[in-house]
Amino acid sequence: MALSWISRFFPGRRREQELHELRRTLEEKNRILSTLAHELRTPLTVMQTTTAVLLEELPGPLSPRQRHFLESMHENTCRMVQFAEAMLADIKVGREWMPLNAQYLNLRRIVQRVKTSMQPLLEERHQSLRIIFPSLLSRPRGNETWIYHVLTNLIHNAAKHAGEGGVVIISVTQHDHCVSLTVSDNGHGLLRAGREKIFEEFYQEEPQADASLQGSGLGLAIVRNVIERHGGKVYVTTASGLGTMVSFTLPLEPTPESAPEPDEKG
């Protein structure tokens, strides 16, 4: 009765209490999920490494039946490791990290780092990666680690759709008020249903036979969350049979630190 009377005459206070309770519940949920993902990731990573060593037959030769079982175990372990890492990333993005870690970004350096890390995967599928930079490129503010992960996610997704022997392109464009980065592929493109759901958590257009390209479906949801926290936007252009382009923008600040720098040779 007393609570009902307070709620009637102080509705604003009740809403504040409800919001506080909701935030506390969500934070507790994230804490539990984060702990669970951490605890799962460590033994799964050990299993992933162990099965990889066994498949290389370093301890000894395998029979065809043993190889079949190990390949299945390795594929599913890789999938679970990726899922645990994506869950941790999604929880981290949901927290207030931007004010603490924002800096002026050297996009040339970040893109080159991503290229180096993704090259083995692309070479395994006989895919090529091309990079296009403008002669002058400004430095937007942001979190270097998260922009690196955004590009890695987008290239991984492009490689998944480009197919054997496909081409993935990273193009960076300088605008007056922002810098845009686009990752495109010459794959099969997305159907209309996939276009509408591409940024939903856990959505995957189709299952992948290749475990190295099998994701959790969290990748593009995280991409959009990260870029929106940077004050940017994400756009998708796709045509069935022609490929897909995913672009994102990073806003520029009118300061000397973000002024365009010439192309770095060598």
**CA gyration radius, whole angstroms:** 22 Å
The main pleated sheet reads as: 5 strands, mixed
Level-2 CATH architecture of the largest domain: 2-Layer Sandwich
Uncertain runs are 1-7, 96-100, 207-218
Catalytic activity: ATP + protein L-histidine = ADP + protein N-phospho-L-histidine
Enzyme class: transferase
GO molecular function: ATP binding; phosphorelay response regulator activity; phosphorelay sensor kinase activity; protein kinase activator activity
Protein name: histidine kinase
Explain this structure to me?
This protein is of the alpha+beta class. The protein has two domains: 2-93; 100-262, Heat Shock Protein 90 (2-Layer Sandwich), CATH 3.30.565. Helices cover 53% and strands 17% of the residues. The protein contains eight helices and nine strands. It has helices spanning 2-9, 11-55, 64-93, 98-101, 107-124, 144-162, 192-197, 219-229; strands at residues 103-104, 128-132, 136-137, 141-142, 167-174, 178-185, 234-239, 243-251, 261-262. The strands form three sheets. A five-stranded mixed sheet has the order 2-5-6-8-7. Strand 5 (167-174) and strand 6 (178-185) form a beta hairpin. Helix 2 (11-55) runs antiparallel to helix 3 (64-93) and helix 5 (107-124) runs parallel beside helix 6. It is globular. The termini are far apart.
